Amino acid sequence: GQTRGGHRHQHTHQALIAIVGKVSIYMNDGSAEEVIDLTHPSQCLLVEPKDWHTMSFDKDSVLLVMSSHPYDRNEYIDTPYE
Q1: Tens of pLDDT along 58-70?
Q2: How far is CA 77 from CA 4, 5, 67, 72, in A?
Q3: Cβ neighbours of residue 74 closer than 8 Å, sequence gap 6 or more
Q4: Dihedral of the CA atoms 6, 13, 2, 33 (nearest 10)?
Q5: Cα 46 to chain centroid, rounded
Q6: Cβ(39)–Cβ(60) under 8 Å?
Q7: Which terminus in the chain has less CB density within 10 A, N or C?
Q8: Can you list the positions of beta strands (E) in the chain?
C-alpha cells in the first residue's frame, strides 16, 4: 500500500521489474501520462530520465530497480511537470 518515487532524473535510466506481487507505475514525460501495472517477473519497464514517476505497491510486493548510475540524491528533479 506504499507509494514511492515522485521524481525524475537528470541522467539516470532505470529498469523496473516486479519480482513479487503487483506494482503500479505512474509515468509522465511532460506530454503524456499513463499508469503501467507490473504483475509478473517477465515484464520490465524502462524509465527514461525525463519520466516523472511514482511507484504504488500492493501488499507484499517486491520491486527490482536496476540503474544506469549510482545513487545520487542531487541528480533527482523533484518538480513535476505542470
Answers
A1: 999 999 999 999 9
A2: 14, 11, 16, 11
A3: none
A4: 60
A5: 8
A6: no
A7: C
A8: 3-9, 14-20, 23-28, 33-38, 45-47, 52-57, 62-67, 76-77
- Which are the contacts of 64, defined by CB distance < 8 A and separation ≥ 6? 16, 17, 18, 19
Phi, psi at 73, each rounded to 5°? -60, -30
User: Could you read off the pLDDT of 48-57 as tens digits, one per residue?
Assistant: 999 999 999 9
Pick left, alpha or beta for residue 21 (phi over 0 → left; psi -120 to 50 → alpha; otherwise beta). Answer: left
Residue type at 34 in one-letter notation = E
